[in-house]
Amino acid sequence: GMVDYQMARNGQIQRLRLLRRFLRENNINRGTATLVQQQAVERLSAHAKLQEEDVNALKILSRTLRTTLRFELFKRHISGLPLFRIWIQLDAGTVRELCMDAMYSDIIRSGDDLFLPGASTGRAYCLVSGMMSYSQEPLTAPVLSGCSENVEVGQWMCEAALWSHWIHVGKAKTHSLCQVVSISGDAMATVCRKHPGVHEIFATYCEVFHRRIISAVPPRSAFPTDLEVPL
Description:
Blueprint (H helix, E strand, L loop, with lengths): L1 H24 L4 H16 L17 H16 L3 H9 L1 H10 L1 E6 L4 E3 L7 E7 L2 E5 L10 E5 L4 E2 L13 E4 L3 E7 H9 L2 H20 L16
Helix pairs in contact: 1-2, 3-5, 4-5, 5-6
């Protein structure tokens, strides 16, 4: 434990020394250099939760066991989406394949943006831990003035990206170290096409969800956002 700590500490010192050299050699002004170094120290000091790519031993597991492991990692999160909760009951094997090939887990540093208005990431996101806010501005969303709200732990964002070509209409910003899991719409579609029964269910749900998106206009309802598509 002490040896590992010392090695990690020495690694951080070396990275900061290299950063200071880079700033000095490129004549970065003192104010900017100070901000860069402060943020670097803060982020190097943060203890991020281990991710799969950090654990080399996982790479030697069989695909079958790795798929079982990823299903255990993601099952409680995707159960937060009604269709996926039903899908687990109907065909857990296909959901395991989805977890293996279409789901991701990422650590997002404090002060970073998960997504920005006008962009299209093709993913739905769930906040697993940390503090995050979602905001909209009149220039990029149909709102009269800027507005912001907190994203709750366990809340899914951008489900519309799984069923349409969704363009973000707001910004999700982290205010602490956050863990986020996501589903890729394209990868999910690839998994579904291999299973005709599942594909038929998803195609029907896609049509229904798409109708929700295009019918969500005032005065009948509020415009859709990255957090919610009104029923």
